[in-house]
Write a structure and sequence with these properties.
- The complex is a heterodimer of chains A (about 180) and B (about 325).
- Chain A has about 180 residues and is an alpha/beta fold.
- Chain A contains four helices and eight strands.
- Chain A is globular.
- Chain A starts with a strand and ends with a strand.
- Chain B is an alpha/beta fold.
- Chain B has two domains: about 160 residues, Aspartate/ornithine carbamoyltransferase (Rossmann fold), CATH 3.40.50; about 150 residues, Rossmann fold (3-Layer(aba) Sandwich).
- Classes of the chains: A alpha/beta (about 180), B alpha/beta (about 325).
- Chains A and B meet through helix 3 of A and helix 1, helix 10 and helix 11 of B.
Chain lengths: ~180, ~325
Amino acid sequence: MTRTVLTGEEISRAIRRISHEILERNKGADSLLLLGIPTRGVLLAQRIHAEISAIEGKAVGLGSLDITLHRDDLRMRAPRPLHRTEIPAGGIEGKDVVLVDDVFFSGRTIRAALDALGELGRPATVQLAVLVDRGHRELPIRADFVGKNLPTSRNEQVRVQLEPLEGEDSVVLEA
Amino acid sequence: MKFPRHLLSIGDLNQESALAVLDTAKELARISDGQIKKLPTLRGRTVVNLFFEDSTRTRISFETAAKRLSADVINFAAKGSSVSKGESLKDTALTLQAMGADAVVIRHHASGAPQRLADAGWIAGPVINAGDGTHEHPTQALLDAFTIRQHLKRDNANLDGLKIAIIGDILHSRVARSNIFLLSMLGASVTVIAPPTLLPVGIESWPCSVSFRLEDSIEEFDAIMTLRIQRERMEEAFFPSEREYSRYYGLNGDRLAQLKDGAIVLHPGPMNRGVEIDAKSADSVRSVIVDQVTNGVFIRMAVLYLLLSGTSINLSEEAKA
């Protein structure tokens, strides 16, 4: 059984709202650095980046952070391909880093991302923006900006589909 | 992603898994190029370098790769060890297993020793062949393919359409053997160029063409790989003299000038300067020999990462079976 929980339009609205919240919280975009977590977090970060740049009238920092090599479950799963890590030339030192991911679940991805950031330098702050928070945290980590809080059961699956990959924007809950 | 349990020969890979190694190495190179020098990926795992034959660069390359992924490394050289007192491969392997080796990198003078180590069940973890006799040296071929792709294909896709020459001692060369199979699998057309005495029996059944003369076709190739003359494996005379070999098959300034624009020169090292390659060629802008060494670390990091992730599922699946 599948159920659409966010339509394309709702996703756009959520991204727009998150962009405003990020600006409000950080009092502007001067030291902002958006880092998407591959693969869909990168696409979402690009869209937030476009919104913020349009609002502020200037480009803000944008990059990607692959966390595969920092995961704690590598032994338990088949080998995973690596994705691109792209940190803008200025690095992360002293920046207000906003990690962007699609689905926030156990929190382990974000833990790995925090470890990966630790290798790169010392940001001023690290914040987290996610499109969907589906609960079931296994670590004491929370999101700062949430597109939609979605109560789920553990055996349900949340599938985020974005236009460049799946041809349309939607979030689907599969039982 | 599916990846074999061991890496013993190029035959363990298919095009998909071979490209997975190259793509993984590409991302590892990008990360290491930036600020991250050490990754936590293999923390708490032990990689044993079991070397029954002299090697500096391959052992150091594997050691560096394992350490950059935070693995612990034990170097076991046969010289000055219990092996020189007559210990068998089996007993050495059982000892390493008892000490908790998670992966074994083996170099051995006997062809097939890594296969024996992998098949016999003495060791639970993956076995990586770092060169066995005159058989194979798969990580060398992978780093050569990576270097060729980096220079001629901008790091993308496979090696379709490239013409690659491998020159020299094909008979004794595990590097040539692994390269012929890997490069042809990735879409390149491979020509081996050597005196008839340095070609193995049955070469016509390998996925490559054969030529005895270097100057006939040198301008056709996108990449030229010249091999070391392996004096230590030559008990008889395979050619009249080194000077004669050098005259017919050595790379020198004149031959370099005949190469097409953008063509590159590879050598697996160590070089005999003045025999198979002269100093001018080795140090020319076409030479990518130093890149091969750098890339070797990334390829070995990729192989260790791919072989050591998911090892506990492999083991539990076997326990169920």
